Amino acid sequence: MKYKFISWNIDSLNAALTGTSERAALSMAVVEKLAAELPDVLAIQETKLNDDTKKTDKILAILAKKFPDYAIVHRISTPPARKGYAGTMYLYKKSLPEPVVTFPEIDAPDTMDSEGRIITLEFPDFFVTQVYTPNSGDGLKRLALRQEWDSAYRAYLQELDSTKPVFISGDFNAAYQEIDLANPKNNHNNPGFTDEERAGFGELLTAGFIDSFRQVHGAVEGVYSWFSQRSRMAKVNNTGWRIDYWLVSERLAENIKRSEMLDTGARQDHLPILLEIEL
Fold first, then answer.
1. Does residue 132 carry a catalytic annotation?
2. CATH number at residue 70
3. Contact 28, 59 (CB under 8 A)
């Protein structure tokens, strides 16, 4: 059976689904494109939902219309973490076997376990899990905490992998190799491209997981998943970063059929990433 999985950092569901700006219209176009792709599972990061149930119900109702054959589960940031921060969501086809849904805590430092960063779906033959990895922050003020997160998250994934294969997606906030960003020399030791973050991501790969994009495309250059909104010409000039990944348990490497970014037109920020695998 062939499965299609898509993952996307949307940078605010509310802005995308209820906003009236030009960017909101571009975001909605991406949502509609993803609905047309009919993925078996759609992972969404940085939802930025909060405990305002009236607003959340409105957003969920819009999603239910766009994705009528899908179940929806989501996780928000809770105290002591900031309200309306981070957050993750899954939409999965109701025709799939009903998964066991968990909101893992991994003994992460600071408020990271309360920031709604991980959701895991357990299906009969595999796990699908997503992550919105903490950013090291301006001035790398959260880098040490990020390193603790990386270690705890790696241990969590290894625990899953010891039971059944795992498909892992999300915004990892790390470009691993120099070919994963347009300007590696200028960005060395900036958040997302520090030696520590790169080493942490490398340890994840050596722990038994593969980068599905590199598995399919090898050392291709100039393909990125994120373009900074701070630079209006970043996407036009293709000065981006590849920080969004589908990782796969190593033993399923040969089952991967597609792994690629999906075009978002003029919209900058993150591109959705697609994985097709045959089991």
1. yes
2. 3.60.10.10
3. no
To the question of pTM greater than 0.90 for the whole model, the response is: yes
**How many domains does one find in the chain?**
1
The catalytic residue among 70, 132, 153, 224 is: 132
- Nearest Cα to Cα of residue 46 among 171, 175, 174, 148: 171
Domain, as residue range, for 87: 2-278
Told to judge if 171 belongs to the known catalytic residues of this protein, a careful annotator would answer: yes
What is the spatial distance between Cα 16 and Cα 35, in angstroms, rounded to a whole number? Answer: 14
* Per-residue tens of pLDDT for the chain, all 279 residues: 999 999 999 999 999 999 999 999 999 999 999 999 999 999 999 999 999 999 999 999 999 999 999 999 999 999 999 999 999 999 999 999 999 999 999 999 999 999 999 999 999 999 999 999 999 999 999 999 999 999 999 999 999 999 999 999 999 999 999 999 999 999 999 999 999 999 999 999 999 999 999 999 999 999 999 999 988 899 999 999 999 999 999 999 999 999 999 999 999 999 999 999 999
